[in-house]
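DNA-binding response regulator, Fischerella thermalis CCMEE 5318. Tokens?
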Amino acid sequence: MSRILIAEDEPRIANFLEKGFKANGFTTTVVSDGNQAISMASSGDFDLLVLDIGLPGKDGWVVLSELRRQGQQIPVIILTAHDSIEDKVSGLEGGADDYVTKPFRFEELLARVRLRLRDSQPKSEDKMLLRLGDIVLDLRTRQMKIGDRPIELSAKEFILAETFMRHPGQILSRQQLLSHAWGYDYDPSTNVVDVYVGYLRKKLGGDRIETVRGMGYRLRL
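Tokens:
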């Protein structure tokens, strides 16, 4: 099930998009300003961003520019009322994958979303393997190897390993790791994240997961 992030500040349009995508089998999240759009689109939790240009905080052009400057490759489909050739060229050259003008038919947008998702999908075998250096994490078998050496992981260790490998080099806070592995309702004062990161660090090698004091943890590149 593909995950779509909708960045749209007009509730009527956001609701229309959310209902339409859900009815066609997608998982959706809606944000209403540019700062939220950047944060969520950078998380690695979404397969595609539908981006309105007229967002408060940071407009869609700034959102797109910052995402591409960060190296984020998430497919982006721009929604805008501006339909000039200059705007379309600017959007596509700025890193957008497609451009849809308002008003639009949902069927057209849906077709473009499916096309971009299909184009962005890696080969099925590669999609199920996360690699970082000599570490390979198989999402099908839920097994890890470092070189030729198999590493046994518990269920929580596997989730933490997957989270780190999807965000290599990025500092992940304890709250982020807690929400990924244990859910948002888990007691934020618990030290369970530190305990399990310690378990995982021993299995990967002590220097692979770095503690960033006061901020969280980072998997070294």
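Residues 35 and 208 are 31 Å apart (CA to CA).
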